[in-house]
């Protein structure tokens, strides 16, 4: 845990939880969400893990790495058309970790829970253990609740925890583990992320039996949508690197941090709060000349 001094934070104390340093192949919340599912897959005797995601999905990459490390075959079902050469995320998943890829157009991808589609995938790739998009399900949420327990143990006076949100599992677990006296804020990286509140509620019901009331989703910091970036986001990343020597991962973490600073400025994060930002995606030290 590292404290981040920054004059833009006013009286807010900000600490970074570098969950991206857990493991180079499955950083941060990816491992926390995978652990329970890998145990279940092993108990069921599964030999193949199949999951869904976009072309820049850190979850797809982490699933490929987990399969390589723990002896599962892996299949990634990617949203959209194939583009060659593969981007670095998918190239690493296939070339280093042996994942097989298949692609669905966006209309078919929206039906990713359709039993007919799943049966077709099973016919093509054989029986599989299904990991949902982003890895968020009832088995993933308790792993993220353990993160909350770690945070409270390390920073007993924490008031607010902020994390990026793509599918809702991390926020669901964090809020459930923090207890009613602390708040969790999820910064959506998706354009049109209004559905995420329902997803978080559903995940909490599945994992804990009931939703909690100590969380909310900030929807306006997506910078154009998932895996999209703008000059404003790039400027924020460059400024943050100049100030703090850390290059923020842009798909999730930079959007969260930009939203966090904006919420300090507009008062949604109260003055004098102690805040922890969960760094879920791989960040790099800035090169200083």
Fold and architecture overview:
This protein has 289 residues and is an alpha/beta fold. It has 2 domains: 2-25 and 138-285, Rossmann fold, CATH 3.40.50; 47-127, 3-Layer(aba) Sandwich (Rossmann fold). The protein is 40% helix and 18% strand. The chain has helices spanning 29-43, 58-70, 88-96, 106-109, 115-125, 141-154, 169-178, 196-208, 231-244, 253-266; strands spanning 2-3, 13-17, 48-53, 73-79, 100-104, 129-131, 160-165, 183-188, 215-218, 246-247, 274-278, 284-285. The strands form 3 sheets. Strands 1-2-11-7-8-9 form a 6-stranded mixed β-sheet. Strands 5-4-3-6 form a 4-stranded parallel β-sheet. A two-stranded antiparallel ribbon has the order 10-12. Strand 4 (73-79), helix 3 and strand 5 (100-104) form a beta-alpha-beta unit. Helix 1 (29-43) packs across helix 2 (58-70) and helix 1 crosses helix 6.
């Amino acid at each position: 845990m590292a404290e981040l001094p920054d004059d833009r934070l006013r009286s807010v104390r900000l600490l970074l939880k570098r969950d991206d340093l857990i493991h180079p192949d499955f950083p941060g919340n990816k491992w926390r969400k995978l652990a329970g599912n890998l145990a279940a897959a092993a108990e069921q005797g599964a030999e193949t893990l199949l999951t869904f995601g976009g072309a820049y999905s850190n979850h797809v990459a982490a699933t490929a790495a987990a399969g390589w490390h723990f002896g599962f075959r892996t299949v990634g079902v990617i949203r959209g058309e194939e583009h060659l050469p593969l981007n670095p995320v998918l190239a690493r998943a296939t070339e280093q970790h042996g994942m097989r890829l298949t692609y669905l157009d966006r209309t078919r991808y929206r039906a990713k829970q359709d039993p007919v589609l799943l049966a077709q995938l099973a016919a093509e790739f054989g029986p599989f253990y299904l990991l949902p998009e982003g890895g968020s399900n009832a088995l993933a949420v308790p792993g993220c609740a353990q993160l909350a327990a770690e945070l409270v143990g390390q920073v007993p006076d924490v008031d607010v925890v902020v994390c990026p949100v793509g599918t809702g599992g991390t926020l669901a677990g964090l809020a459930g583990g923090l207890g009613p006296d602390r708040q969790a804020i999820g910064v959506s990286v998706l354009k049109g992320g209004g559905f995420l509140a329902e997803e978080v509620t559903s995940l909490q019901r599945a994992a804990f039996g009931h939703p909690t009331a100590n969380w909310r989703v900030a929807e306006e910091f997506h910078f154009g949508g998932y895996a999209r970036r703008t000059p404003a986001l790039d400027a924020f990343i460059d400024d943050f690197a100049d100030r703090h020597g850390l290059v923020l991962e842009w798909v999730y973490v930079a959007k969260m941090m930009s939203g966090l600073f904006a919420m300090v400025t507009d008062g949604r994060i109260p003055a004098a709060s102690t805040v922890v930002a969960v760094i879920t995606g791989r960040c790099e030290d800035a090169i200083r000349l």
